[in-house]
Amino acid sequence: MCLPRGLSSNDLEKLDQIVARTQPIHKGDVLFHAGDKFSGIFAVRTGCIKLATSTEQGDEQIIGFYFPGEIIGLDGIENDLHTCTAVALDTSCLCFIGFQHLSDVCTEVPALSEQMFRLMGRELSHEHNLLLTITKKHADGRIATFLLSLSSRFKILGYSEVEFRLPMSRSEIGNYLGLTFETVSRCLSKFQKQGLIEINHKYITILDIDALNAVCNETTPAENLRKSAS
Amino acid sequence: MCLPRGLSSNDLEKLDQIVARTQPIHKGDVLFHAGDKFSGIFAVRTGCIKLATSTEQGDEQIIGFYFPGEIIGLDGIENDLHTCTAVALDTSCLCFIGFQHLSDVCTEVPALSEQMFRLMGRELSHEHNLLLTITKKHADGRIATFLLSLSSRFKILGYSEVEFRLPMSRSEIGNYLGLTFETVSRCLSKFQKQGLIEINHKYITILDIDALNAVCNETTPAENLRKSAS
DNA sequence: CGTTACGTTGATAGGAATCAATGAGGGTGG
DNA sequence: CCACCCTCATTGATTCCTATCAACGTAACG
Fold first, then answer.
1. Distance between the alpha carbon (CA) of A35 and the C1' atom of D22, Å
2. Looking at residue B172, what is its pLDDT?
3. pTM (2 d.p.)
4. Which of residues 4-43 of B touch A (CB under 8 A)?
5. What pLDDT, on the 0 to 100 scale, is given for residue A105?
6. Which residues of A162-176 are buried (b: 16+ CB within 10 A; e: fewer)?
7. How far is the CA of A34 from the C1' of C29 (A)?
8. pLDDT of res. B218
9. Chain A neighbors of B84, CB-CB under 8 A
10. Nearest by CB to B110, which of A107, A136, A178?
11. Alpha-carbon distance B144 to A157, whole Å?
């Protein structure tokens, strides 16, 4: 499992008792909607889930894509209401941990409480990084960053870091990175022409990871924004 | 104080014992640096603090501006290291709560634990909103949104919601909103010409709050990004 | 085999970044 | 106390990136 880390086997047992394996859900299925009552958190076992918030006007902003080992649902802890919508991008299996159980165990096991804080902290850093990527990088850099992020996560999961399938559409990538799908498509084509990657529909092969890294670190737009650092 | 909410007076007492009032810090002083060891969290009592992350290349991204009653330092919970830098924008007073003490009291008082989760959840929603603002709105909308956010926060603090001082520079506003300081300046001037606000250096008067709200909700760029909602 | 959603590619336009020059305040030192 | 410096802010001219509009190709699905 994914949640525990530094828990005693005794504590692990307690945790294990409250974890439920859910039925697989299919592409397009909604795990929870923004506004739904918060009932607990989910751990992705297989597949991929996207999380998105939205404005009153109905535009949606994708917050992240979640792969096996990653946790979703923390957005509901604040007010017992989910602020995000979670949708499966592929057939996916999840574990569910009811919040009532979880907080019971948390009071018994302080280490689990800490672990929960860490998870929320991770969400926060993820969003910090996303903000940095969006505000400081051009389209090229954002997409290169995105591809490398996927690559490193797949590697951790034991899959190939250079050859993988994108579970999300161009449109979703664009939404996530603050770009239009046309721009995403164009950048991917450009990277292919430059020999950085090879694209076959949803399948990507990274040919030159160093060059991609270089694109990530390219000159930032709004050089002068740095001045506020001083 | 700011942290408690729904705590018993008994619990409050425990909390009170571990809160330390710190010496006032001055404009430009650094409360903690990214990379510093995490020692505890701060509550702003007076003044204003900015929080920022940065890339390896040194560009900084301002994450938020924190006013009295707001909490900073949660970014350090994940790895016991701060991921943000906190800088005073004005002379400011803060309370400090050491993390060791805090987690001790948390295990005794589950309600406080929940409160901490809620605080982190609030940080998360704040960043979701910021992302939405940056990716879905033009410069005008971002700045109008920013002004209205300040306005409502000042109102809560008991200050005027239509007349206030901006503790941060144009450059910092721009950094926060993903714009250059020139664009910020231009938009503010434009709003003034349109009779929405009046600017006097750092002092702002909101003349037409409804019109500002309208600017916030204006047509979004990248209309087609919505399609991924379907 | 048509329908539909998704993806690619091209042409154009618009908004904000960049470059540049000038002005206003605040602090320091003579 | 005034002159100077330096940072912050304003405003204008130009450029560049990416959104937008549009047409077409391709894959998946019933």
1. 38
2. 97
3. 0.91
4. none
5. 81
6. bebebbbebbbbbbb
7. 61
8. 81
9. 128
10. A107
11. 43
Which residues 55-94 of chain B have a CB within 8 Å of chain A? 55-63, 74-79, 83-84
Residue B47 DSSP class: S
**Average pLDDT by stretches of 10, chain A with 230 residues:** 64 76 90 94 94 86 96 91 95 90 80 85 94 96 97 95 96 97 97 96 96 87 44
Q: Which residues of B touch A131 (CB under 8 A)?
A: 53, 61, 63, 127, 130-131, 134
SS (H, E, C) chain A: CCCCCCCCHHHHHHHHHHEEECCCECCCCEEECCCCECCEEEEEEECCEEEEEECCCCCEEEEEEECCCCEECHHHCCCCECCCEEEECCCEEEEEEEHHHHHHHHHHCHHHHHHHHHHHHHHHHHHHHHHHHHHHCCHHHHHHHHHHHHHHHHHHCCCCCCEEECCCCHHHHHHHHCCCHHHHHHHHHHHHHCCCEEEECCEEEECCHHHHHHHHCCCCCCHHHHHHHC
